[in-house]
Amino acid sequence: MRSFVRLLPSRGDYRRLAVWIFCIAWLIGNIALIIGLNGAGGEVPAICGFVIACAAWWLGYRLGGMKGRIGATVGLLAIGIWTLNLLGALTFAFRHYVADFFFWASAIALLALIFSITFSETRHREGEP
Fold first, then answer.
1. Are 68 and 19 in contact (CB under 8 A)?
2. Average pLDDT for consecutive 10-residue bins of the chain (129 residues)?
3. 8 Å CB contact between 74 and 49
4. CA separation (Å) from 44 to 35, 48, 64?
5. Domain boundaries, given as residue ranges, for the chain
6. CA distance 65 to 20
7. pTM higher than 0.85 for the full model?
């Protein structure tokens, strides 16, 4: 039983764990965007991968990743790079991506993540549970 307890992180390790989760989410999200925007491996697996990356990012955020300077940097950098990838694709190949299902599905997932962060912060600041 003692060895199992050592595998679980303590409350003080949540920030470091959140940074690693942000890095993993960043990696999964970038791979999904590369595959989905290039049309190399199919849209559905790439959409699922990007949604998993957004969910992992949210988990890192909830673990307290934005409370530390490194976690906030890595977390916001991941969202910024994902946003720039989508905006760059739309800017440079507008006619192709305006009708692309992967583009709109990943944009909706990213916007849902950003809105959930925004509403979570406002609710937290107002003192609601």
1. yes
2. 58 79 93 86 87 93 79 88 91 85 92 89 54
3. no
4. 10, 6, 31
5. 14-119
6. 9
7. no
